[in-house]
Amino acid sequence: MASNKTDLTDAVWRSSSYSNGDGGNCVEVVDGHTGIVPVRDSKVPNGSFLTIAAPAWASFVNSLKD
After folding, report:
1. Has residue 5 got a pLDDT over 80?
2. What's the CA gap between 33 and 22, in Å, rounded?
3. What are the strands of the beta sheet with 13-15, ordered from one edge?
4. Is the predicted pLDDT of residue 2 greater than 60, yes or no?
5. Which end of the chain offers a freer environment for a tag, N or C, measured as fewer CB atoms within 10 Å?
6. Model pTM greater than 0.85?
7. What is the CA radius of gyration of the chain?
């Protein structure tokens, strides 16, 4: 897993297109960071976040689709 020293001050977080839109239980991600995917809990937008290596995130998402 990558370091959390990534500056996301001006990041635009997005929820899954499968989210119901009411701010419920969902993860949010930030696009556009080479090699990593920042991920946070939508219920705690000012909390901490994880940075996950892009190949690991892709593998995770693909496993959910299966």
Report:
1. no
2. 27
3. 13-15, 27-30, 36-41, 50-53
4. no
5. C
6. no
7. 12
What's the rounded Cα separation, in Å, for the pair 24 and 12?
A: 18
Cα 35 to chain centroid distance, Å, stands at: 13
Check if the beta carbon of residue 53 is closer than 8 Å to that of residue 35: yes
Q: How confident is the model at residue 37 (pLDDT cuts 50, 70, 90)?
A: very high
Could you write out the DSSP letters of every residue in 36-54? Answer: EEEEEETT-TTS--EEEEH
pLDDT value of residue 29: 93
| Whole-number Å distance between alpha carbons of 2 and 54 | 10
Find out whether 33 and 19 touch, Cβ atoms under 8 Å: no
Which tokens sit at 30?
Answer: 């930030």
Whole-Å CA distances, 28 to 47, 59:
12, 17
